[in-house]
Amino acid sequence: MKDYQVFLQKLVQDRVAFGGFLIVFIVILVGFFAPYLAPYPGDVKAIHLSERLQRPTLKHLLGTDDFGRDILSRVIFGTRVSFTIALIAVGACLIIGIPIGLYAGFYENWLSSVFMRIGDIFLSVPQIVLALAFASALGRSMPNIILALSVTYWPWFSGIVFAETRKVKKSVFIEATVALGASSSRTIFRHVLPNVLSPIIIRSTVGMGYTILTAAALGFIGVGAPPPTPEWGIAIADARQYLPEAWWCATFPGLAIFLTVMGFNMLGDGLRDLLDPRLKRGGREEIKVGE
Amino acid sequence: MKDLVIHFYTDYGVVEAIDQLNLVVNRGEVVGLIGESGCGKTTTARAILGVVPSPPGKILEGEILFQGQDLLKMERRKFNSLIRGKAITLIPQDPFNSFNPLFTVGTQIMDIVKWKVLSSHPDQGNRSENRKAIGSENVMKKLKQMQIPFPERQLGKYPHEFSGGQRQRIMIAMALLSNPSLIIADEPTTALDVTIEAQILQLLRQLVKAFEVSILYITHDLGVASQICDRVVIMYAGQVMEIAPIASFFAKPLHPYTKKLLDSLPNPKGTITDIPGEVPSLIKPPPGCRFCTRCEFAEPKCWQERPVIEEIFPDHWVRCFHPIIGSPVLLAEGNLINGRN
Amino acid sequence: MRVFSFILGRLAVTPIIILGLITLVFFIVRVIPADPVSFIAGERATKEQIAELKQKWGLDKPLYTQYFIYLRQLAKGDFGTSFYTHQPVIEDLMRRLPATLELTIVAVILSVALGVPVGIISALGRNSWFDHLLRVVTIGGLSIVGFWLGIMLQLVIGYQLNLLPLTGRIDLYAPQDITGFLILDSILTWNGKALLSSLKHLILPATAIAFASFAVIARFTRAGVLNVLRSDYVLYEQAMGLPYFLIILKYVLRNSITSTVTQIGLVFASLLGGAAVIEMVFEWPGLGNFLVQSILLADYKVILGVTVWIGLVYIVMNLIIDIAQTIVDPRRIEQ
Q1: Are A242 and A53 in contact (CB under 8 A)?
Q2: Long-range contacts, A109-118 (Cβ 8 Å, 24+)
Q3: What is the predicted pLDDT for the residue at A279?
Q4: C286 backbone φψ class: left, alpha, beta (φ>0; ψ -120 to 50)
Q5: Is A281 touching C (CB cutoff 8 A)?
Q6: To the nearest whole angstrom, how far is the Cα of A214 from the nearest Cα of chain C?
Q7: Residue A76 to chain C, least CA–CA distance (Å)
Q8: pTM here?
Q9: Domains of chain A, start order
Q10: C238/B84 touch (CB, cutoff 8 Å), yes or no
Q11: Contact in structure between A267 and A24 (CB atoms under 8 Å)
Q12: Which residue in chain C has the smallest CA separation from B93?
């Protein structure tokens, strides 16, 4: 059987990975078709004060919030917000992080040390703290939040690429390639990049989920996108004052975050099992519980 | 080992790794298990000690008889305490990775002593300090025999503080502690320099004579085999191709594969012969002789029918429809046979 | 000694990173459009009053000058004064630190006590139903939204079941302040009521935090144990017939511990800042809460002070972990 056939077969067999894939797929679909799926697409902006804080009913399946807006619709549109933020942020991290990592890993000069030190600085505090500082400094808007997230997350990616590049570089076969006269860029592209690809893919997948979480946290604190953006974190923050009676306002957006992130993590976990042979779930016979 | 069949169930298909293996080791004998990388020698060794990785691997048929008992059917607990590390011990291929890096060499040796040696020591009634003392003494004696200087000082050191040769010698000492009947030596000198290799081989020869222990010596190096083995078993792609006493083997190789192996040894004439072709995939292997894809004497019959192993010369067996009987192979001078003295 | 030169090497780089952090945060924070001076002075303040305040706090000088002044003060250990509380930042920090530490420590203890055994059992019974279940649970734990979980816990256990308190660290009888750690102080002063109360207040926020860190620790422990199980030395120990309980309890455990310990350290360090949001939810008077509030108020000395402080702790913890690893695993220096 060919490699990719085996890969696909195993992906489907691994229920967790496949489940994650389905969830992510559904999320993307929901985000894409939001205007058609949401029962009250206008509620992204509109306000219906007469219908404030209604319990979940057939008319409003998840209830209404403090502005009378249908929560189901806002949650559905929130998919778009979170996914967009995460996609662009992770994309930016890849664009920044991969080249830096490749350069720093391949060339061992002062510039690569500088790059790594800069990365270390950003990694020296938990990401949320720095992102918080950035986001609040920049002001409340979607682009700013994406910027804050990208700027604080790229070092993870460059770090992975750096480590893999160094490792491949030290391997004997690269010495051979170089000895045979292959140019540096050729070496990088044909040999280093494929090895780096799988950890990057895994990290990106998990990173999507992680970014959505952080974005929600920033929204919750109040430095995220401005209202009335239907972002999930903001929704939970707004809902807090109406607890415990209007429990539905806080519960459902949070559930949405949880499910979406879980989907990405499930997929990432499955990919990790498949792509990274070192972490394979193998073992020897007999060391089992109960023996 | 009788009619042993081992398959590995992988994502790419079923690898028929070992096909009807038959092998005998007698008391006090050194039997070489020889073959290229991937031919199944390590799997065979692991099967004896019950450490074939079991999710992919499975022993489908066959028996492994040791002193009359079938190891494959033996009760787990008994197998673990009486056979492994006691009646049958192991000298692993890589002495560096086979030591636990976070514990001193002494701790690891003494654990073997405590659990495998002392448990059936005649002085069982003694208090534990006495037993420990006896055990230590034993260890020191063995280490000295392995020509390790100042053994008392070495026990407190960590594995990475030793050289490769020293580590392997400690491993050999550990394999001898329980006075085993059989030692499985899995390419013990592959990871070592040639000069160290020579020392180790000499050491092993002396030990066989002194302790009357049998060794199943796994290697891919014919030169090494010639220095230590009484008999050799040639494996190819999971099948036994030839079994012979060492002298008869070098003088009259019967199997086409074996002949090619000997031909490919470096010789002073400077000619290099190799074997064309590749080892067949073991996922859908030929039902007959597995060397047929590269054999110059191959016929359609060879693919379909597995030849039975036959004794051609005294104690010299071959599995082939076209064994090379005829004039003895003339060895070019300088071919590296230092016969066992 | 190689350990020594390794440590020296790391120590040499650390100040650079810290300096970099300070610089980074300083310039970020000064970009904040919100002007603390106007906030404090109030709406009716005249231009002269604002200018006066600015001069008083040295805010009228050019940015670079302010930067170097700050550095010089920092070198003396002076983190400045908060605009709002008018206290030295250090004092505000120190007053709130025990709260965060106590919460973090309890959360870490919870996650380790649960995570390590679960990870080990899961590895030993790899691919059993337990292992698969744990896989899903840990993925869930990693995906959990801390603050949302906190709110849910408050809702269900706090309101509906009325079992545990919702906010704050303690109800009434705060014990005598010896260490700042309510649990310790209660024990030291034999104050049972206080002990009970502080424990009750700790459970919910600690649980909200511990979910995620439990997942991390369980996963890494599992991976570490699996890795060890596949090693050549375990193969050798098995082939040589050492009893299973000996192999697992003595050798496998010891070899797996290093990676777990690393994770515990990292988890602890990241929780110091990361628990900020949960502190908000439970109105826990800790560092994280303080940080968030000061960001919203643009109290930049505090923002700087707390961020730099958290960064320092993080870096130091990483350093300690790296050093500990080289001691625990003598081979690492060679790598």
Answers
A1: yes
A2: A115/A158, A116/A162, A117/C13, A117/C16, A117/C17, A117/C20, A118/A155, A118/C20
A3: 38
A4: beta
A5: yes
A6: 9
A7: 18
A8: 0.80
A9: 3-290 (1.10.3720.10)
A10: yes
A11: yes
A12: C232
* List of chain B residues whose C-beta atoms are within 8 Å of the C-beta of residue C330: 101-102, 158, 160
Alpha-carbon dihedral angle through residues A182, A187, A191, A196, given to the nearest 10 degrees: 170
| pLDDT of res. C60 | 65
Amino acid at B161: E
B204: which 2 tokens?
A: 């092993």
Residue position matching structure tokens 């014919």: B222
Q: Regarding predicted confidence, which is higher, B215 or A245?
A: B215
Beta strands in chain B (DSSP E): 2-10, 13-21, 30-34, 57-63, 65-66, 69-70, 88-91, 182-186, 214-219, 231-236, 239-245, 309-313, 316-319
Instruction: Identify the three-state secondary structure at position C328.
Output: helix
Q: Tens digits of per-residue pLDDT, B271-296? A: 777 777 777 778 888 888 888 888 88
Q: Over chain B, what is the mean pLDDT?
A: 82
Verify cis geometry, omega within 30 degrees of 0, for the bond prior to A99. Answer: no
- Between β-strands B182-186 and B231-236, what pairing exists: parallel, antiparallel or unpaired? unpaired
What distance in Å separates the CA atoms of residue B216 and residue B199, rounded to the nearest whole number? 19
Instruction: Give all strands (DSSP E) within chain A, no chain letters.
Output: none
Question: Considering only A2-11, B21-30, C33-42, which range has the smallest mean pLDDT?
Answer: C33-42
**Tens digits of residue pLDDT in B72-87:** 888 888 888 888 888 8
> How large a percentage of chain C has pLDDT more than 90?
4
Grouping H, G, I as helix, E, B as strand and the rest as coil, residue C92 is: helix
Q: What distance in Å separates residue C236's CA from the closest CA in chain B?
A: 6
A191 Rama sector, left if φ>0, alpha if ψ -120 to 50, beta otherwise: alpha
Chain B residues with at least one Cβ partner in C under 8 Å: 46, 49-51, 55, 80-81, 83-86, 89-90, 92, 94, 97-103, 111-112, 115-116, 158, 160, 174
Beta bridge partners of B59: B6
The backbone torsions φ and ψ at residue C284, rounded to the nearest 5 degrees and listed phi first, read -85, 125
**Interchain contact, B11 vs A6, CB within 8 Å:** yes
Over residues C106-122, the pLDDT tens digits come to 999 999 999 999 988 88
**Cβ B112 vs Cβ B175: under 8 Å:** no
What was the ipTM of the complex prediction? 0.84
Q: Which residue of A has its CA nearest to B55?
A: A285
CB pairs under 8 A between A and C: 167
8 Å CB contact between A124 and C314: yes
Looking at chain A, which residue has its C-alpha nearest residue C245? A291
Give me the DSSP letters along C202-259: HHHHHHHHHHHHHHHHHHHHHHHHHHHHTSHHHHHHHHTT--HHHIIIIIIHHHHHHH
CB contacts under 8 A, C 275-294 vs A, are 276-277, 280, 291-292
Among candidates A16, A122, A216 on the partner chain, residue whose Cβ is nearest the Cβ of C136: A16
Mean pLDDT of C198-208: 86
Q: Using CA atoms, how far apart are residues B129 and B121, in angstroms rounded to an integer?
A: 14
Q: What is the pLDDT of residues A107-142, one digit of tens each?
A: 778 888 888 888 888 887 788 888 888 887 777 888
Q: What is the DSSP letter of B116?
A: I
Q: Is the pLDDT of residue B242 over 60?
A: yes
Question: Cβ of A113 under 8 Å from any chain C Cβ?
Answer: no
User: Chain B partners of A291 at a C-beta cutoff of 8 Å?
Assistant: 76
B72-75: which pairs have CB atoms within 8 A and are 24 or more residues apart?
A: none
Please enumerate in sequence order all residues whose Cβ is within 8 A of that of A243, keeping only pairs 6 or more positions apart, or say none: A249, A250, C151, C154, C155, C159
**Which chain C residues touch B103 with a CB distance below 8 Å?**
251, 254
Query: Quick one: DSSP state of residue C8?
Result: H
The minimal CB distance from B116 to the residues C233, C236, C241 is found for C241
Residues belonging to chain C with any Cβ–Cβ distance to chain B shorter than 8 Å: 127, 231-233, 235-244, 246, 250-251, 254-255, 328-331, 334
